[in-house]
Amino acid sequence: MDEHAGEGGTVRNSVSGNAVVHGHSVQAQVIESLTIASSGAYRPPVPRQLPARNGLFVNRTTELGSLNDALTSSRLISVSGLGGVGKTQLVSRWATASGAEYFPDGQLYADLADSRHDGAVDVSAVLGDFLLALGVEKDFVPTSQNGRAALYRTVTSGRRLLVVVDNAQHAPEVRPLIPGGGHLVVLSRKRLPSLVLDGAAQIVVGPLDDEAGVELVRTWQHGAAERTATELVRLCSGLPLAMRTVGERLLRQSHLTLEDVVRGLGGDGDWLRGGDDDRSVAVVFEKVVSGFPEHTRELYLVLGCLPGTTFTGPMATAAGVGRFDEGVGDLLDAHMAVPHGRDASHRFRLHDVVRAHARGYALRHRPEQWHTDVLARVLDFYVERAAQADRLVLGDRFRLQDAPSAAAPFPDGTEALDWLDAERANLLAVLREGARHGRHEAVWRLCESLWALYHSRKHYADWIESHRLGIAAAQWEARPDAEIRLRNQLARAHYDLGEYVQARSELERAEELFGLVSDPRLRGVVWESHGLVCLAEGDPEAALDLFERALEANAGDRHGVAVQTYNVAQALVAAGRPRQAVERLDPVLAELPERDSMRMRINLVLSRARHALGDTDGALALAVDAAVLAHARGQYAKLEQALALAAELADLVQDARLRTACLDKARELRRTAGVAPAEEAGPGRDS
Asked: What is the mean pLDDT of residues 531-547?
């Protein structure tokens, strides 16, 4: 074999581990055989995220016409009106009927109330959700908001897409959500005049007038007297939500007539309001809830004191609710609750107007201690359930808390991670309330378990806020081990975001606590993170020292040794010492099981090291092997790195076929990963 001069001598064209130096034509065949797309041209997914329409819809002819007219005059449409006036139903009706022909590439929907923290919306999280819904593979979602916004514009360019954003409060929180192709409809309780500067068409949705309101009443009360129906419309301020609630609940009581309902709503001026835009709507809700069965009232009370925005049967049961299915059925019948999200048969939310009333209702009808007890049960539920999910997602990683006592309710890690993601707004809200009520042990434990969610799905605003709460809780509990652990997890968020000063600050504060703990693994995780920061900042020698310390702290843990040796080798290559990197990695690679996740990463570093030593053929074999391993594990970001490296090395050995195969496969990968512009990704419409 050829020999090449290298660091400290010569190297032979041989490769350790499973990578074998085949002829370049065989390597080209290997790359060409990788199947990225399942079959045929890649078709981006067609999301259908708009809330389902209910069966009752009257009038709104003017508003529907205005929406149609706005399509030709602006790509940005602002729809404003009171809570409960029917804005979301109006747009859902329009989009699935008269507007359907305009949006063959689907509909995206976001309720900004789910991502609003202390008045500010985590726009980056909304963009991340949109990118995933549009078919972008999670490893290709950028970390920064600007990066996500740029990719969002790219992948939506050329698409005829409808994006609906609900509960907007300020223009700046919706501007990054304007797609590259299609239309953005913004729903808000107030007008957003600054959107006019962006060319928005403005549509105001008012309460139903008497004629339209009577028509709605007669959809569920045939033959209703016009005078009585008109009075009901006025008592409900013309808001469809309140009128439907009356129709579906009060009139189910067979002994009542419409006249009885009107007399009941209009006869007591002392009914308490529940915090809604209009007193009459609160009166309606008050009367409806008073007519519920006891188990439904109890569910409503519990929902009124929950800090989050959605709810499920297991959570409500843990909070002390009995007969959940019957109770939620009553709320659905009354249009006070609606199914929510991808698991809409199991997850629900109160209409935001109803939620405001429920909170006031619970405050008036239950003492403070009851609220405290419910919150405690809900917090304990999430601590246990998140710990179960964490262990399914990340397996046997190092943790401070004991394993949950009960078996996990999820069949696999994928569903566990999806549950964490669906619950993320609730998890953060519960953490805040737990901190406010002094439940410090539960807060830091829940925070530790959320690493499974944040490390995988990269909700950075949630990640940072939750860990600040967790660190404070660990300090209250005098748990330096938990504080070290959570400061390290917080530092990794800042590291991902390129905020190295903040990351270093958290790690240095964690290191100050080393004298108070005995477990060497705590030191190891901090040294590893600190080393990654040094490497990113261009100081490989400092990184090498930290990685060596982390390696020593992981002595006896085969996987930990593999990870830290990999990090050591990265630093050695960056420091210009590739031979030492090879010498450190070769024995580790030889000991790794065939299916170990580190084998692919180690092959990439070894490839770069051998390339630096002049062993281009050996480096190329390792890069091709890394590509095969990354493909087998579905790790698309690493696959892209391996293909790029293999293409570069193929160019050096003047193998045009192998280089072309790598570049073609990389383009195919980017299309399948959803990061190519729509015009390059192929047709995305239903056939």
From this structure: 97
Q: How confident is the model at residue 8 (pLDDT cuts 50, 70, 90)?
A: very low
Q: Are 186 and 163 in contact (CB under 8 A)?
A: no
pLDDT tens digits along 573-599: 999 999 999 999 999 988 888 878 899
Q: Which two tokens stand for residue 161?
A: 């897409």
Q: In terms of DSSP H, where are the helices of 240-293?
A: 240-249, 258-266, 279-290
Instruction: Let me know if 52 is exposed, middle or buried by CB neighbors in 10 A (0-12, 13-18, 19+).
Output: exposed
Q: Which of 297, 411, 317 is nearest to 364 (CA)?
A: 297
What is the per-residue pLDDT for 559?
A: 85
Say how far apart CA 333 and CA 354 lie, in whole Å: 14
The three-class DSSP label of residue 555 is coil
Q: Per-residue pLDDT for 420 more than 90? A: yes
Q: What's residue 57's pLDDT?
A: 61
Could you write out the DSSP letters of every residue in 477-512?
A: TT-HHHHHHHHHHHHHHHHHTT-HHHHHHHHHHHHT
C-alpha distances out from residue 85 to 79, 113, 148, 281, Å: 11, 17, 33, 11
Can you tell me the distance from the alpha carbon of 155 to that of 139, in angstroms, rounded to the nearest whole number?
Answer: 15
**% of residues, the chain, pLDDT over 70:** 87
Assess contact for 85 and 189: CB atoms under 8 A.
Answer: no
Sign of CA dihedral 458, 461, 463, 464: positive
Q: How far is CA 219 from CA 117, 262, 264, in A?
A: 40, 17, 21
Angle at 382 between CA 376 and CA 386, to 5 degrees: 155
For residue 412, the 8-state DSSP code is S
Between the CA of residue 153 and those of 77, 157, 184, 681, what are the distances in Å?
A: 18, 6, 12, 14
The 10s digit of each residue's pLDDT in 228-278 is 788 778 777 777 877 777 776 656 666 667 777 777 666 543 333 333 344
* Residue 330 pLDDT exceeds 80: yes
Strand partners, 183: 162
CA-based R_g, the chain, Å: 29
Q: What is the pLDDT of residue 249?
A: 63
Tell which residue, 138, 122, 220, has the closest CA to residue 455.
Answer: 138
User: Please, which residues bridge with residue 419 across strands?
Assistant: none
Residues 6+ apart with CB under 8 A from 582: 16, 606, 609, 610, 613
pLDDT higher at 91 or 256: 91
CA angle 545, 549, 552 (to 5 degrees): 140
Amino acid at 381: F
Task: Give residue 42's pLDDT.
Answer: 59
Q: How confident is the model at residue 55 (pLDDT cuts 50, 70, 90)?
A: low
Give, rounded to a whole angstrom, the gap between the first and last alpha carbons of the chain.
55
**Rounded to whole angstroms, how far apart are CA atoms 106 and 130?**
12
CB contact at 8 A, 328 and 338: no
Q: How far apart are CA 106 and CA 108, in angstroms?
A: 7
Beta 347-350 vs 9-12: how paired, if at all?
unpaired
- Mean pLDDT calculated for residue range 393-401: 89
Which residue's entry shows tokens 């490893």? 139
Angstrom distance (rounded) from CA 457 to CA 407: 24
| Pairing mode, strands 347-350 and 337-339 | antiparallel
Tokens matching residue 550: 């982390």
Q: Which two tokens stand for residue 448?
A: 């530790």
SS3 100: helix
- Residue 123's pLDDT is what? 92
**What is the spatial distance between Cα 249 and Cα 553, in angstroms, rounded to a whole number?**
64
